[in-house]
Amino acid sequence: MTSTGGGQTNTWAAGDYPAMADRLLPAAAAVVDAAGIRAGQRVLDVGTGTGNAALLAARAGARVTGTDPTARLLAVAAGRAEREDLTVTWRDGVAERIDAPDHSFDRVLSVFASMYAPDPRTAAGELLRCCRPDGRVVVAAWTPDSFMSATNRAMAPYLPPPDPAGTPPVRWGDPDFVRGLFGAAGASVASGTSSVRFEFRTADEAVGFWTRTAGHLQAQRSELESTGAWDGLLADLRRCFVDAAGGDTAPVVVHSTYLLTVVEPGGGSESGGGDGSG
Ligand SMILES: C[S@@+](CC[C@H](N)C(=O)[O-])C[C@H]1O[C@@H](n2cnc3c(N)ncnc32)[C@H](O)[C@@H]1O
């Protein structure tokens, strides 16, 4: 395992995250849309994972760099770019230490990624630092009351405890918190909610997908199986899906809400965030 910084262990490669990333594509599209990307612009996608937002920006003709601390996901991103004959610069890196000069990008994006930086203030400062004053930073983060948060709460008792001094990632899904993070330096900050729709044939299929794609869970799986806790976890997750879907339905449809925040470092006119369901 590698580290994502702040002493955290990186488990993003331990599960089938690329399958989850496919389902999150509508959120990346909403971020790219809110960024208003045009051909020729320099775009940075921080925590690019398998490259969802980076590739959308590259297809729009932007000159794109995607960074991520998880080498295996960057390799998937690079493979996707190669298959489409798109040129993107892929680099190892975390949000809290961006290896780029000040004001070197027109658009800085982060889709469900900067929220995992152990120090949110440093990460937000870095996103702003490498964006041009007349540019735009656009971030997406699950809200504290989202379905994604509910499943994380269900999984938490089965996982190693988080750093008690750390900031829960979903704080980035609270408009007041992100305004405090980005607004202090005189930037304009506008947030709105949207959601990602998940559909599975059955609740069991949904639970299978969730556990398969969650690297932090897969990293604990053999221990949980050996203690017999794994079955309890599956039952708790199943309850999450049934509750959110309004019953043990087939298919199972749930929506997970996220906050989309548009920051204009130079304090330009307010532009709306997300406003509908993905
Ligand atoms: C939920 S995935 C999102 C990936 C991608 N942006 C997408 O939309 O599919 C979270 C990503 O954040 C990355 N990550 C973890 N810690 C990070 C940090 N401190 N700074 C930047 N990215 C980080 C992980 O490697 C992973 O690729």
Automatic annotation (TrEMBL):
Give the GO terms filed under biological process for this record: methylation
Cytoplasm listed as a keyword = no
Q: Which UniProt keywords apply?
A: Methyltransferase, Transferase
Top EC class of this enzyme: transferase
InterPro entries reported in the protein's UniProt record: Methyltransf_11, Methyltransf_Superfamily, SAM-dependent_MTases_sf
Q: Specify one Pfam family.
A: Methyltransf_11
Query: From the UniProt record, which GO molecular function terms apply?
Result: methyltransferase activity
Catalytic activity, EC: 2.1.1.-
**Domain (Methyltransferase type) ranges:** 44-139
The residues forming a coiled coil are none
SUPFAM superfamilies, from UniProt?
S-adenosyl-L-methionine-dependent methyltransferases (SSF53335)
**Protein name, UniProt field:** Class I SAM-dependent methyltransferase
